[in-house]
Specification:
The termini are far apart. With 145 residues, the chain is α+β, with helices and mostly antiparallel strands. The chain contains three helices and seven strands. A hairpin with a 5-residue loop joins strand 2 and strand 3. It has one domain. The structure holds zinc ion. Zinc ion (ZN) binds next to loops.
Length: 145
């Protein structure tokens, strides 16, 4: 790789970081619109954090209406399903979000609103199916205050 190409990649990398930080800042502002100086900011922050904690513990599959009420959705990096605890993917057809991985549990039976994503876990039997993987994008969920 020549130095001009290295320089070009560095500029592109910096632009990407700036773009994604701006996206995160906008999402945080949407999740908690009060100014820092307002006492409601602290209350909102606490509520948002509790929602994120609940999300981590329960790994619920959320349909669009409930999702909109509780969280702000931010695209999170590259396309595709990268399973990890705490990670989420969104179905672009119906807007539901699903955990990209779930803890071992006796029963987990859920589908996104259009049926593209299906979790069927009963006892030791576990099946996760996705009809159209190209409809999924990884997302980050920020708790609304
Ligand atoms: Zn769906």
């Amino acid at each position: 790789m020549d130095s001009a190409r290295k320089k070009q990649l560095k500029v592109l990398g910096k632009a990407e970081v700036a773009r994604s930080s701006a996206e995160i800042r906008a999402a945080l502002k949407e999740a908690n619109p009060e100014p820092y100086s307002d006492k409601r900011w602290g209350e909102n922050y606490k509520r948002g954090t509790l929602r994120e904690k609940w999300l981590k513990q329960k790994s619920p599959l959320l349909h669009a209406k409930k999702l909109e009420e509780l969280f702000v959705v931010v695209p999170n990096g590259s396309a595709g399903w990268q399973p990890h605890l705490g990670g989420y993917v969104q179905c672009q057809r119906c807007g539901s979000v699903a955990p990209s991985a779930v803890r071992k549990r006796w029963f987990y039976w859920a589908s996104c609103q259009c049926g593209n994503i299906q979790f069927r876990c009963v006892g030791p039997w576990k099946k996760i199916s996705v009809a159209n993987p190209e409809l999924l994008i990884p997302v980050k969920l920020i708790g609304r205050g």
